[in-house]
Amino acid sequence: MRKLMLLDNATLDGHLARRSDVNAAVLFSVVDQQFDWQAELLADYDTMLFGRVSFQKGALFYPTHPSALASRMNSMSKVVFSNSLESLDWAPSRLATAAPADELARLRGKQGGNICIKGSPTLARTFSRQGLIDEYVFIVHPVIAGSDGVPHFDDPADLPALKLLDVTELAAGAVALTYARA
């Protein structure tokens, strides 16, 4: 069965961004080595799941970025969960035609590589709450968001018990923590 992985950045205090940041990516010091590592991580993946906001941010960044990660992301199929988007300008992509769990079941029923949610916290919470995420990969950066932070998971029901699978030291003081459901 095709595995579903959540891949996202995080602060030391468990946030994905600051509410006051116009562009959440400014919070993290992402360097080429981290892009290369993520591209390697996604080698067995061929489908990305996005919410509207993360898809739109990705569509502005990845098509022209020179990194191996951008090349990988640009080639992957993208399924976007949105009630407001009518067209998608980052190919290959399509709008989801079913509820998240049903769309995932349909994808898992087809041949293909693994599936990744990158960012998209509302969508990630939905899948996590239903026990559908197989692996969680958080790239933790040496940054504190504090009370201005946007949490990954703000309800204990959103995150199951996890077991640590791997720790990878990355550049700029970041570490990648890989977990599976316990």
UniProtKB/TrEMBL annotation:
One of its GO terms (biological process) is riboflavin biosynthetic process. SUPFAM superfamilies: Dihydrofolate reductase-like. It holds the Pfam family RibD_C. GO terms for molecular function: 5-amino-6-(5-phosphoribosylamino)uracil reductase activity. Gene3D superfamilies: Dihydrofolate Reductase, subunit A. Residues 9-174 form the Bacterial bifunctional deaminase-reductase C-terminal domain. It comes from the Bacteria. PANTHER family: 2,5-DIAMINO-6-RIBOSYLAMINO-4(3H)-PYRIMIDINONE 5'-PHOSPHATE REDUCTASE (PTHR38011:SF11), DIHYDROFOLATE REDUCTASE FAMILY PROTEIN (AFU_ORTHOLOGUE AFUA_8G06820) (PTHR38011). This is Dihydrofolate reductase. It comes from Antrihabitans cavernicola.
